[in-house]
């Protein structure tokens, strides 16, 4: 009698097609079949191998698994993670996810931010600014070996994450591209991993202000980098003793053009990191139609997964995925460029008064690139 009463109550709460989840849902049928019969397709669907999925699930299961109640059974942590990874990896909306996994839309809207924050909490140690000298040395060697740029410890960039404007938000998130967005500010190391991310700045915030209001800016001002170290950025960032940006204008000397070319080579690291992020997590291809707080969770989770998979999977970033050079310094573009539209960059900053020491630092690199630090093909690349 008790079992009959429970079944009766569940019918009142759960639609029949949802109640059949364990028999006919996407987790029970298609993903299970792909896992055992076609791991390569499973990896395309989940953006990770079955082994990586199981490892990640073991790390977050205890924080996302709920208890069954008298009225209904709790959604398994495995299905919650599958739904979230499908959402991140594709452009599926909540209704399509609901039909595929046989989970209600309200449940999906609640579980996605929950699982995203759980992923970020479990993996955030993979997004870290170096603390030890040997860690900085690895990054420096990477930039010097691959891009012939000495004493460089990262490439900084900022991108607009396109969102659906929240109700009654007015122009709060409206950016220069005439879309609504939040800003992702990131520092990228030599290996296409994020050393730092700053999320949540409104799209209409001044681009210089996004950087200056970040915790990264304060740490850089306080001497974060090793002695004489620099990071590289584009025209959206201020020229600093520790931050090199291109020479402005079109009437440039040969040495200045070469310096700008060499700096752009080093900055390709950040451009490619963002490109790989979007090509793997297609949720960023369209305006994200969630609450702004959920957007922050999505961005944090995707960046953490990006770094984690870079270290865990040899196929997450292959040699053809990213830009590379032939023997003459000619760029061979990575495959991500033909797969996606890149995220919009933050706009160029108004020219300001830079310190004399910052200008001298940039000039030192300019002179170095024309003498001891020159590469054979650089003059060909500026014409």
From TrEMBL:
It comes from the Eukaryota. GO terms for molecular function: hydrolase activity; metal ion binding; nuclease activity. Its cofactor is a divalent metal cation. Keywords: Hydrolase, Metal-binding, Nuclease, Nucleus. Its main location: nucleus. The keyword Phosphoprotein does not apply. GO terms for cellular component: nucleus. Residues 156-307 form the DDE Tnp4 domain. Pfam families: DDE_Tnp_4 (PF13359). Signal peptide: none annotated. Belongs to the HARBI1 family. This is DDE Tnp4 domain-containing protein. It comes from Parnassius mnemosyne.
């Amino acid at each position: 009698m008790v079992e009959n009463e429970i079944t009766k109550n569940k019918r009142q709460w759960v639609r029949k097609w949802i109640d059949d989840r364990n028999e006919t849902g996407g987790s029970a049928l298609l993903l299970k079949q792909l896992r055992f019969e076609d791991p390569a397709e499973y990896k395309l669907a989940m953006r990770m191998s079955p082994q990586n999925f199981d490892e990640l699930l073991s790390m977050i299961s205890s924080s996302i698994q709920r208890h069954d109640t008298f009225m209904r059974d709790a959604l398994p942590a495995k299905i919650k993670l599958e739904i979230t990874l499908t959402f991140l990896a594709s452009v599926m909306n909540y209704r399509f996810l609901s039909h595929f996994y046989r989970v209600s839309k309200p449940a999906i809207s609640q579980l996605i931010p929950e699982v995203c924050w759980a992923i970020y909490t479990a993996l955030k140690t993979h997004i870290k600014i170096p603390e030890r000298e040997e860690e900085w040395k690895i990054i420096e060697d990477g930039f010097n070996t691959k891009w012939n740029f000495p004493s460089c410890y990262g490439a900084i960039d900022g991108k607009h994450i396109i969102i659906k404007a929240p109700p009654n938000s007015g122009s709060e998130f409206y950016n220069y591209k005439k879309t609504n967005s939040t800003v992702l500010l990131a520092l990228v190391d030599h290996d296409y991993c994020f050393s730092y991310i700053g999320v949540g700045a409104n799209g209409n915030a001044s681009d210089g202000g996004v950087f200056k209001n970040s915790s990264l800016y304060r740490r850089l001002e306080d001497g974060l980098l090793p002695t004489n170290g620099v990071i590289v950025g584009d025209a959206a960032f201020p020229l600093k003793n520790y931050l090199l940006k291109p020479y402005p204008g079109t009437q440039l000397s040969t040495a200045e053009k070469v310096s700008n070319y060499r700096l752009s080579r080093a900055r390709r690291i950040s451009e490619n990191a963002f490109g790989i992020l979007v090509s793997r997590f297609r949720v960023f291809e369209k305006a994200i139609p969630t609450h702004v707080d959920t957007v922050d969770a999505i961005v944090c989770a995707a960046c953490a997964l990006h770094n984690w998979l870079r270290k865990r999977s040899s196929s997450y970033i292959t040699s053809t995925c990213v830009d590379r050079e032939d023997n003459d310094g000619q760029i061979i573009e990575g495959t991500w460029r033909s797969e996606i539209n890149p995220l919009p960059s933050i706009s160029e900053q108004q020219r300001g008064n830079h310190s004399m020491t910052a200008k001298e630092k940039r000039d030192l690199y300019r002179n170095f690139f024309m003498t001891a630090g020159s590469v054979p093909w650089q003059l060909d690349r500026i014409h």
